[in-house]
Design brief:
single chain; about 325 residues; alpha+beta; Beta-Lactamase; Helix Hairpins; Heat Shock Protein 90; five-stranded mixed β-sheet; 6 helices; about 20% strand
């Protein structure tokens, strides 16, 4: 209205006089879907000669304000969803850590009891086989629990602990291959050792890396195929590689292969873990200052290659320096 005192819509209304309104513009605000949001108002104590162009500009301004408000509402909703998802992820990871930690006590009791019974000399073959399977299953469960605890620690932003000491990776690799071979009779595990493989690493952690890579290679390769494990000293680093003759990993999977809950293929998934093995491998190798890579082709199979820089160890956990 150009003059509130003469406009028939409000000439007799007390509000213009109460608030000193001479001229008044009101434009409804709508979201993009057409729903009503509110009203954009402009008031002037003096009557104004408003042209149609002025009104059109104000209408466009109302549309812009309405759209901007809608965008802010949408951003607010997305922020709330993101915060909720982040809190849920943190809670889930904390829960995994707590449950995994609490599972260790009963599992250790099962392992101790089975190991005590299997040493008896009066067991028949059937009983001994059953106890052997219990121990193997308990060992797999322990590895899974360790992976879950490491996963939780890594996702919470904490570095995996590394306790370095002088290690010959040739010897460590042979020990791990022997242990895995006992649990997988009938599979062909070949070993190759080249150069000097001594340095300062955490032997338990490196054994965990080798075990995860060997388990992965066994799961993703045909039963009659071979697995080649190599340790090679090359200058200031030692290279560990595990090669299998299974089908190649799909190209679209490779970029995220070391992310948690990721598998190379879905074949035989009923025999596999929840997909933390390669994620843990990557985290342990990073904690040692190294790197891990994978090459997968039809002709050569799949090779995981771990590069670990050598360190000289002076006998103290904090006394580690590059050689």
């Amino acid at each position: 209205m150009r003059d509130a005192s003469t406009d028939p819509r409000c000439a007799t209304h007390p509000a213009p006089k109460l608030y000193g309104v001479g001229s008044y513009i009101a434009v409804p605000l709508h979201r993009k879907d057409g729903s009503f949001f509110g009203v954009l108002c402009a008031m002037d104590p003096r009557p104004a000669n408003l042209t149609e162009d002025n009104l059109e500009v104000f209408r466009h301004l109302g549309e812009l304000v309405g759209h901007q408000l809608e965008q802010q509402e949408e951003l607010g909703r997305r922020d709330a969803q993101l915060l909720g998802a982040r809190e849920a992820a943190q809670l889930r990871e904390q829960l995994i850590g707590i449950v995994s930690h609490d599972l260790r006590n009963p599992l250790n009791a099962i392992t101790l009891s089975a190991a005590t019974l299997i040493r008896r000399t009066d067991l028949d073959d059937r009983a001994r086989l059953g106890l052997t399977r219990i121990l193997e299953s308990a060992d797999r469960a322990n590895r899974l629990i360790r992976d879950l605890l490491d996963f939780t620690q890594a996702r919470m932003g904490q570095a995996l602990p590394v306790k370095r000491r002088t290690v010959d990776l040739h010897d460590l690799m042979q020990q791990v291959v022997d242990e895995v071979g006992l649990a997988t009779p009938g599979r062909k595990l070949e070993v190759k050792m080249l150069g000097d493989a001594r340095g300062a690493w955490d032997p338990d952690r490196i054994a965990q890396v080798l075990t995860n890579l060997l388990t992965n290679a066994l799961q993703y390769s045909p039963p009659g195929s071979r697995i080649l494990v190599t340790t090679e000293g090359v200058g200031d680093e030692v290279v560990l590689s595990v090669c299998n003759e299974g089908p190649p990993i799909p190209m679209q999977v490779l970029p995220g292969l070391f992310e948690p809950m990721t598998r190379g293929t879905s074949d035989g998934s009923e025999r596999r873990s929840i997909g933390l093995g390669l994620f843990i491998v990557d985290q342990i190798v990073r904690a040692h200052g190294g790197s891990v890579e994978v090459v997968s082709t039809h002709g050569a199979g799949t090779t995981f290659r771990v590069r670990l820089p050598r360190y000289e160890y002076d006998g103290l956990d904090a006394g580690v320096s590059p050689s």
